[in-house]
Amino acid sequence: MSFSNPEAFFLLLILVPFIIVVIYNYGKKKKILNGFISENAYKRLGYRSGKEVDFFKASLIILSLIFFITALAGPEWGEKYEHVDIRGIELVFLMDTSNSMNAEDLKPNRLEIAKNLIISIVDNLKTDFVSLINFAGVAYVQCPLTVDYEAFKLMTEASLISPDEEQGTDFSVALNLALNAFKKSKGTTKVVVLITDGEDQEHEWDEMISEFKKQEIVIFTVGVGVISGAPIPLKDKDGKVIGWKKDKKGNIVKTKLDEKPLIRIASQTGGQYFRLTSVSSIDVFVRSLKQFERSVIQKKVKLKKIKRFIYPLSIGIIFLILELLLAEKKIKWVKR
């Protein structure tokens, strides 16, 4: 046997003062009665169920309270199979992992802020499917659609800047992979969250927006970085900064947040654009996600413990009815 609400047993403590009051009243009643009549004379008076009925009435009340509290604790035993509909949305995160995400205009850098944003959003979800696609010049699925949030967060934390041969920023490869992720989708509500500094170098995403609109897939975009820009650090294998990225003329390259394409993508698909300055600014974003209607995206059969609160509740009611029916009898003379 187990209990779904075991903390309810703390209510048993209220019975302690109740029992003390019962004992006190019983003693006081006996003392008053002894002041009027001797014990020998009392025995000659017919019968009055004083001691006996007082004791049983108090006992029945205490027992009924004990069973009521047990019912409130939610006793469970035995198991049964139950069909469960999981309602939610399907949410695909597209995270930019190009070199520009190493910029430190947001501390510790843009990539870490993006990862923290994704994890913070997932911490506010319950039954939504989530997936992560990392992209630069090439896109790949870091984590497929899942409701295992702990595994998803581990995969998000493990995301790194793409290797040199995959550099460049191409929104279209990430968006195309997101469309593929939804091909076997069973849900009706599909959302994409594009997190990037906006420096798309290929400009091929325009042709794909019509497909997102056709499939009613909403795209939210999140701009990471500052408009004034920041240099791109070059790091060694140990993660130490060894210099700054430079152009062919030897000038330090600055990466700037480009909001224009992000605003266009969001507005054309019914989403919203957010500029990310810190993870604490996600509240509005999370509220927007919660407004989407959750449809059935998975059906599961699971074992569920059977609730048995009706048994102690019924016993408690029986004891309470008995207490109400057990009335004290009046004193009357009996022949001896």
Itemize the secondary structure elements and their pairings.
Layout (H helix, E strand, L loop, with lengths): L1 E2 L11 H22 L2 H6 L5 H23 L2 E14 L1 E7 L13 H13 L6 E7 L3 E8 L2 H9 L13 H11 L8 E7 L9 H9 L2 E8 L5 E2 L1 E3 L5 E4 L9 E2 L4 H10 L3 E4 L6 H8 L4 E13 L2 H16 L11
Parallel strand pairs: 3-4, 3-6, 6-7, 7-12
Antiparallel strand pairs: 1-2, 2-13, 4-5, 8-11, 9-10
Helix pairs in contact: 1-3, 3-10, 4-5
Largest sheet: 6 strands, mixed
CATH architecture of the largest domain: 3-Layer(aba) Sandwich
How many angstroms separate the termini?
A: 55 Å
Count the DSSP helices: 10
CATH class of the largest domain: Alpha Beta
Extended strand count: 13
- Report the order of strands and helices: EHHHEEHEEHHEHEEEEEHEHEH
Supply Rg: 35 Å
- Please tell me what the overall shape is: elongated
* Strand coverage percent: 15-25%
Low-confidence stretches: 329-336
The neighbouring-strand order within the major sheet is: 5-4-3-6-7-12
Average per-residue pLDDT, rounded, comes to: 81
Describe it for me?
By secondary structure, the protein is of the alpha/beta class. The chain folds into 2 domains: 2-74 and 308-325, no CATH class; 85-299, von Willebrand factor, type A domain (Rossmann fold), CATH 3.40.50. 38% of the residues lie in helices and 24% in strands. The chain is built from 10 helices and 13 strands. The chain has helices spanning 15-36, 39-44, 50-72, 110-122, 149-157, 171-181, 206-214, 260-269, 283-290, 310-325, and strands at 2-3, 75-88, 90-96, 129-135, 139-146, 190-196, 217-224, 230-231, 233-235, 241-244, 254-255, 273-276, 295-307. A 6-stranded mixed sheet has the order 5-4-3-6-7-12, with helices on both faces. The longest helix has 23 residues, at 50-72. The radius of gyration is 35 Å and the shape is elongated. The model is unreliable at 329-336 (pLDDT under 50).
